[in-house]
Design brief:
Length: 172
């Protein structure tokens, strides 16, 4: 039996990381961790106020996610986190070399529509442009897959599982 992946479900705000992450974890039979729970309160306050985070704001958050992923190595797990820049993903890989990424992708129009209909989330739609401006998609040398977010959560999760089945595990 292959070693379970530790997966970071990534993408801009509104792609469905918090919806797809637990569904993917259930399908893989591994625990799920909500990436937003790793943010310091100061980060949440900034985003709630409509202020984009800086890299300095993100480092402690990424380090916390990286520690969680490191502790799940060999056991598997799914954690959500935007991981928008290559440098962020490099930092996560430095903590947990065997992680893989599921990059949830969609058009700006679809994502904005979904964001405008969700309630109770601290990330305002006004920050979507900064998210897309920051996004550096996965490159060929990064262990991961892109998954389109059109359709319902079950369809998106199925696409993610199928893509991961075809992925060669990264070297640890």
């Amino acid at each position: 039996m292959p070693t379970p992946f530790v997966v970071v479900v990534m993408g801009v705000a509104g792609t469905g990381k918090t919806t797809i992450g637990p569904l993917l974890a259930a399908r893989l039979g591994v625990p799920y961790a909500e990436g937003d729970d790793f943010h310091p309160q100061a980060n949440i306050a900034k985003m709630t106020a409509g202020t984009p985070l800086t890299d300095d704001d993100r480092w402690p958050w990424l380090d916390a996610i990286g520690r969680w992923a490191h502790d799940r190595a060999g056991l598997g797990g799914v954690v959500s986190g935007s991981a928008l820049k290559r440098a962020y993903r490099d930092r996560l890989r430095a903590a947990a070399p065997g992680i893989v990424f599921v990059h949830l992708t969609g058009t700006r129009e679809l994502i904005e529509d979904r964001m405008s209909h969700r309630t109770g989330h601290f990330m305002p739609t006004v920050l979507l442009d900064s998210q897309f401006a920051t996004l550096q998609p996965l490159t060929a040398d990064e262990a991961g897959v892109e998954v389109d977010v059109s359709g319902d959560p079950a369809e998106i999760t199925e696409r993610a599982v199928t893509a991961l089945d075809d992925l060669t595990p990264p070297r640890m």
